[in-house]
Specification:
alpha/beta; Rossmann fold; six-stranded mixed beta sheet; 9 helices; His_PPase_superfam; RNaseH_sf; RNaseH-like_sf
Length: 335
């Protein structure tokens, strides 16, 4: 995980943040999407808002995806904050609070990811609590989730102020639902993403790691799924670049369906929003989910791009949001 952007605090002070998240599915399962925002409760000001289509998913998967987006935004913004996550999904709130069991595999995977993010916030000195709110009090996140179900992908950074700055700047606040609000996007660093397809055999691991290290240096972030050889590659790369790999089910490429995995695409878009140099060790489906998103490849052509086990693929995303594929299926290190 890249270092979070934080502001210096006075001793004993603690920033407070509120996540509002929602998800929906037209058909359940059907066309799905999530919306999430991070708000400064002192001023009511929205700091970040996000929306992302999820393809065909259930309503509950969409709700969890909204929570995950909000938690990731907090980790990037200030992981030492005290956070309240507010949702109109009783199921998600009760499950994340530990009062209800999680039976469905897709939700269990997403809940574990959410708990890992909560633990990351806790390790940084922050905290996360969950609060159910009625739907009529979750209108901003609901509107964003409907934008997502309409096919819109949104990541707006509207303000980055802490609670001590909020009162002084309250006169410039804009209503969260206003259509006149400018879509002010922060100047994120470019993203340099190296996609590593999991090798088939352990003997290929040192060859893959060597090839990765010729392309990235210290300071790179490493993310991976929980496949044994993926973990082995990620840990070896992480040891060389000085980064503890972030293990996430979002990079596994195991979501239901035979084409693009929208959970992988969500993870990719989160990286694109904050930038940096990232090595992502994932499955062939994970690699193709990113490539076809960048190239806007039609669904029926999803599997038409050749990639081999242990191959390297590079994607670049610039400050203005434009993206390009630098190379695909590089395999000379395996010869």
């Amino acid at each position: 995980m890249s270092p979070a952007t934080t502001r210096a605090k006075q001793p004993g002070s603690r920033r407070r943040l509120v996540i509002e998240a929602d998800g929906g599915s037209r058909g359940n399962p059907g066309v799905a999407g999530y919306g999430a925002l991070v708000r400064d409760p002192a001023s009511g000001r929205v700091l970040i808002e996000m929306a992302e289509p999820l393809g065909k998913q259930s309503n509950n998967v969409a709700e969890y995806s909204g929570l995950l987006a909000g938690l990731r935004a907090v980790v990037d913004l200030d992981p030492s904050a005290d956070v309240v996550a507010r949702m109109d999904s009783k199921l998600v709130v009760e499950q994340m609070s530990g009062r209800w069991k999680i039976k469905h595999e897709d939700m269990r995977r997403l809940a574990l990811e959410a708990r890992d993010l909560c633990a990351e916030i806790g390790d940084a000195g922050g905290s996360v609590s969950f609060e159910w709110i009625p739907r009529e009090k979750n209108k901003a996140a609901d509107a964003l989730s409907n934008d997502a179900m309409d096919g819109k992908s949104i990541h707006r950074v509207l303000h980055d102020v802490d609670a001590n700055d909020a009162a002084a700047q309250a006169d410039s606040a804009v209503s969260p639902g206003s259509q006149e609000r400018a879509d002010v996007v922060a100047h994120h660093k470019p993203l340099r993403l190296l996609l590593v397809q999991v090798p088939l055999v352990e003997a290929a691991v040192p060859l893959v790691v060597g090839a990765v290290l010729r392309l990235v240096g210290s300071g790179a972030e490493v993310v991976t799924c929980d496949e044994p050889l993926a973990l082995e590659v990620a840990r070896a790369v992480g040891a060389e670049v000085g980064a503890e790999p972030t293990v996430s089910g979002l990079w596994a490429g195991r979501a239901p369906g035979e084409d693009a995995d929208e959970t992988v695409r969500t993870a990719y878009r989160s990286l694109a929003a904050r930038g940096g140099t990232v090595v992502a060790v994932t499955s062939r489906r994970g690699v193709l989910s990113v490539l076809t998103d960048v190239l806007e490849t039609p669904g029926p052509r999803f599997w038409a791009i050749a990639t081999a086990p242990g191959s390297l693929t590079a994607v670049e995303v610039w400050e203005d949001g434009s993206s390009a594929v630098a190379f695909t299926n590089r395999t000379e290190h395996l010869a």
